[in-house]
Amino acid sequence: MLSRFNSSRLRLPFAFSALISSLVFTSCTIKPPMQGEDLRSKALPAVKVPDQFAMQGKQSASPANHVKVDDAWLKQFQDEELNQLVAEALRNSPDIQVIAARRLQAESLINAASGAQYPGVNAFGNIGGKVGSSGTGLTGYYIGAGWELDLWGRVRTSIAGAGQNARSINADQDAARLSLIGTLTKTAWLARALQEQARLTSESAAAAQTVSDLTAIREKIGASSQADVSASKLIASQAKELALSTALARDQALRAVEVLLGRYPDAKPLNTTRLPQLPAPVAPGLPTDLLERRPDIIAAEARVNSAFYATEEKRLARLPKISLTAGFGYINSEVFALTRGPSTSLGTGANVFIPLFQGGAIEAQIAYQNAEAQAAIANYGKVALNAFNDVENALNGEATWRERSTLLQGQLTEQRRLMDNRRAEFRIGRIDQRQVQQEIIRTNAIEMNWRQGQVDALAQRVNLYLALGGSPTE
Predict the structure, then answer these.
(1) 141 band by pLDDT with thresholds 50, 70 and 90
(2) Using an 8 Å Cβ cutoff, are 198 and 247 in contact?
(3) Stretch 381-405: mean pLDDT, rounded?
(4) Percent of the chain at pLDDT exceeding 90
(5) Where are the chain's structural domains?
(6) 134 near 265, Cβ under 8 Å?
(7) Closest-CA residue to 317 (of 457, 172, 441, 150)
(8) Which residues partner with 141 through β-bridges?
(9) What is the second-level CATH architecture of the domain 31-117+150-188+264-320+355-468?
(10) For the residues of 56-69, what is the DSSP string, one character each?
(11) Which candidate, 53, 44, 63, places its Cα nearest to that of 382?
């Protein structure tokens, strides 16, 4: 009889909670996040953003011999050793471990915020004799549950804000991963070029020393002056210094590669000094909407929405909070005589909290979050402008370096032809060994410029891919 009575007493609160629960899902809905053109217009109201990048419109309109900007852009360079280095870095680099930890933090933020949408259950207990800490001999425990009804959407807004905050953290880690791969790619190519440049400068230093030795011999027989000897010694010393500086730069670049890979930096040479061919120009007509996949754009957008959700959460804090509660307790005492002996109780109820006067604290918090949201919008505009600048610079830089590489290739071809002519003249006795060695030095200098031009052109293409976002690997 008593159990049926208690059951009937409990039906009403549970029915009431079911009714309230249905109201939660039909009550205030939270605002969707801002993104894309809507956000750009708020962040850059005075900037006219074109549909396509300006420099892209100046490229050849012919679709032949162009490539599309797509994910997995590393494959366009067809560099097997580079692919192996990137795979090793993604396995072993400490930066990747930091990225993984930050992603776990982002997931924890969402889980922590999501816990507020479920009932909370807590327990409290006490046991003591006649001389216990309280002197009452009370023994008891209480198990209670409470659930805030999200009638106005405050909890959902908090969860949405945590989701946007986690999204910004993940985007920051995507940017860090992209930066790691881009830096490794450009550093590996630079190290290859410096390996070759170190060889060429060493060869040029040896040639300069040969010229200096020959000039000293000629001075002894009266065919050259002391000034010629001093000038040749100066050139030989400068060539040796350049060789030492280039070797140092080579070792530093190799160590930088090894650090990015998570290896000990012992300046071990790379397997090849070959640089990949620069891929064909990107297909014309790149839309500016491509920037929306950039990690820093995604992170800035998420921070704007996180700030606005925080503002909305503070605004909703002015509304009443309604919570359903339920609990079961037991109490007994060895000192005091309870009216009915040991007592147990089971009950349900509801709590209402209405903030009537907080001394302006809530309004101040709302004003603070509004200012934070405005700062986030301004920062989004700054990031977007920098992104546009990155792409335009990369497009312009690649076009310039592509043209310069062609000119350097032409210079190197002519210089090699000239050196062959000098060697032919030496073989028939028209010139001496000094002129041959000097042509070797000139040829090496032009080849070094040409190789540096290759590295710069390849780096500009990597900068373009990084500026447009997307993944470098599958």
Answers:
(1) confident
(2) yes
(3) 88
(4) 41
(5) 31-117+150-188+264-320+355-468
(6) no
(7) 150
(8) 125, 330
(9) Up-down Bundle (1.20)
(10) HHTS----TT-B--
(11) 44
